[in-house]
Amino acid sequence: MAKMQADYIWMNGEIIPWEQATVHVFTHALHYGSSAFEGIRAYEVNDAAAIFRGPEHFERLLYSCKVAHIPSPLDVDEWMDVAQAVLRKNDHRSAYIRPLVFRGYESLGVDGRGCPVDSILASVPWGRYLGAESIEQGVDVQVSSWRRMASNMFSPMAKIGGQYVSSQNVVMEAKDNGFTEGIALDINGQVSEGSGENIFVIYKGVIYTPPLGSSILGGVTRDSAITIARDLGYDLREQAMSREMLYLADEIFFTGTAAEITPVRSVDRMPVGDGKRGPITQSIQGVFFGILEDNMPDKWGWLTHVG
């Protein structure tokens, strides 16, 4: 993957040149993962940037900050203003947006609440997270030996930096074994999610997705896929699933800000359905990418157009 950078970045209240956004090596977040972050996309719509469901992402950022006891310096509207300003400054029409709120440099105690709070928001060019061809051809995945974190140990519904060591274990193991991605089970052995994606399983025309109680992140793209599927008339059920459902499935797809909507063509080297993107996945993709890339009506008001 190419080095990600831009000309400008917002840090602690001002837009500065990219190279000036630095931290001390004793920054608390470097040592203890004391940060909260988001991943947001902007798509080029009518020759300008449009942020996909920005307010929902920033609402989740504020929730993550609350759980991590790291005060956010901005509210949702202020974060949206900063995101638009950075996109304009970088002249980005299509980009990945990364806000980060973290404990800075003061002391090295585990309880970092005495440290200052720093924050950044960056926009960088970004392609297909799981590969350009993955949207049509699908990806090969494995069920990970690593379990998803339990909700009485961490906060699965928050995007807190230190928790993503778990996701790193899942995806590194998968890649070392020749797969694109891994699927983690929860502490009860039920299907949870990928290292950075929610999962949907289609069996005999019914779409299943793990509930929030299966240690998943409440994904914004997941919510979008649910909305689209139900609008198209599909029977969609949020319920716990055994690992075996992955092998019975006629279709499987991932959702996520980075992954967008990506089909899964095999699990543990067993083909999913016909081993290619299925018709239900394709129909949901059609609406999703139609709104974001093909000027279909934005019937749910998901886009914030950057002037």
Give the arrangement of secondary structure elements:
Layout (H helix, E strand, L loop, with lengths): L7 E4 L2 E4 L10 H5 L2 E3 L2 E6 L2 E5 L1 H15 L7 H15 L4 E9 L13 E8 L9 H4 L1 E5 L20 H13 L4 E5 L5 E4 L3 E6 L2 E4 L10 H12 L3 E4 L5 H5 L2 E6 L3 E8 L2 E2 L7 H15 L9 E3 L2
Parallel strand pairs: 8-9, 8-15, 12-13
Antiparallel strand pairs: 1-2, 1-7, 3-6, 4-5, 4-6, 5-17, 6-7, 9-10, 11-12, 11-14, 14-15, 15-16
Helix pairs in contact: 2-3, 6-8
Q: Quote the beta fraction.
A: 25-35%
* Termini separation: 30 Å
SSE string: EEHEEEHHEEHEHEEEEHEHEEEHE
The amount of helix comes to 25-40%
Q: CATH superfamily of the largest domain, please? A: D-amino Acid Aminotransferase, subunit A, domain 2
Major sheet: 9 strands, mixed
CATH architecture of the largest domain: Alpha-Beta Barrel
Structure classification = alpha+beta
Low-confidence segments, given as residue ranges, are none
Work out the number of β strands.
Answer: 17
Characterize the overall form: globular
Total domain modules: 2
What gyration radius follows from the Cα positions, in whole Å? Answer: 19 Å
Q: Any idea of the CATH topology of the largest domain?
A: D-amino Acid Aminotransferase, Chain A, domain 2
Oligomer: single chain
Descriptive overview:
The protein is of the alpha+beta class. The protein has two domains: 8-124, D-amino Acid Aminotransferase, Chain A, domain 1 (2-Layer Sandwich); 134-293, D-amino Acid Aminotransferase, subunit A, domain 2 (D-amino Acid Aminotransferase, Chain A, domain 2), CATH 3.20.10. Helices cover 27% and strands 28% of the residues. It contains eight helices and 17 strands. The chain has helices at residues 28-32, 54-68, 76-90, 134-137, 164-176, 220-231, 244-248, 279-293, and strands spanning 8-11, 14-17, 35-37, 40-45, 48-52, 95-103, 117-124, 139-143, 181-185, 191-194, 198-203, 206-209, 235-238, 251-256, 260-267, 270-271, 303-305. Strands 8, 9, 10, 11, 12, 13, 14, 15 and 16 form a nine-stranded mixed beta sheet that branches. Helix 6 (220-231) links the parallel strand 12 and strand 13 (235-238). The radius of gyration is 19 Å and the shape is globular. The mean pLDDT is 95.
